[in-house]
């Protein structure tokens, strides 16, 4: 399923074959939590800006419109009119983000819905069932993401429970993929490495989950309170203990400089809401770093966001016009900036792949970091 084409240092250029197409890695997955990119970006737009993988969220789609409704409509691909790979997050991150609205037990997690307060339950089996109904290409195992820092004794107990949950996820997915009414009988499963900022716990957990021989492995529980240096240290500690013949996915990390540093440490998959969220607030990425279109200096600026960019926004509109749209509270402003930012990220990953193949990734990385000058 995963073919390693080239290594340049620890940076890896690969191809991951799925039932919905081949993913060229390293790859950035464009986040559409509710089967839509926030900012009025359509599936057709995603094709145009070079998106390979769309990411949606199990917990949120379970609440609305409901995973059983999506199954009746033919699965997530038909529902949102997207025929390329989709990865669904398991709902495990909501164990972290909804910490004031949940209770963790061995069987799973009890939530109060953030929409109406309704009591809901999600465990490994429920998460797998929901993701099977959604019929995503890649399903994530149900886990607990702990904040950093957390007490060592709690992290150890949480990681042990996450391992037990993974075993239940694997068994449930095997059962679901064999059922006659399952839409995607070749749904893949990625396990998630946890352990906070404790190297030894991370390494032990990486060894344990590697025994399951899954389709891929994620490094979770980062970008949730630790420093960038701690993040890089954890990646370096864990990477040697994850199977080299499977893709590695760094969950929720999306600052461009973080992506470059993680690729240089052997990571293949990335996702983050950051480019879309920044775009909706007028913060856009360029070859010289991020700029804020609300700044008065762009009022008469007739240049595109980035003069070398081929996205729809840069091909047709000026900074001055997009700034005007924001000041006038026109939705088109958000749409254009989200399109630009996602195009920037997809193009960045394309250039990273070319640099690895050409044996100049380290030079490319240093050149980009110098261009951005800390404004990435």
TrEMBL record:
The active site is at residues 89, 271. Zn(2+) binds at residues 309, 311, 314, 340. Belongs to the queuine tRNA-ribosyltransferase family. Homodimer. Within each dimer, one monomer is responsible for RNA recognition and catalysis, while the other monomer binds to the replacement base PreQ1. GO terms for cellular component: cytosol. InterPro entries: ArchSynthase1/Queuine_TRR, TGT, TGT-like_sf, tRNA_ribo_trans-like. HAMAP family: Q_tRNA_Tgt. One of its GO terms (molecular function) is metal ion binding. Binds 1 zinc ion per subunit. It is an enzyme of class 2 (transferase). It comes from Clostridium homopropionicum DSM 5847. This is Queuine tRNA-ribosyltransferase. Pathway: tRNA modification; tRNA-queuosine biosynthesis. Keywords: Glycosyltransferase, Metal-binding, Queuosine biosynthesis, Transferase, tRNA processing, Zinc. It comes from the Bacteria. It catalyses: 7-aminomethyl-7-carbaguanine + guanosine(34) in tRNA = 7-aminomethyl-7-carbaguanosine(34) in tRNA + guanine. Coiled coil: none annotated. Substrate binds at residues 89-93, 143, 194, 221. Its EC number is 2.4.2.29. The gene is tgt. NCBIfam families: Q_tRNA_tgt (TIGR00430), tgt_general (TIGR00449). Residues 10-368 form the tRNA-guanine(15) transglycosylase-like domain. Residues 252-258, 276-280 are annotated as: RNA binding.
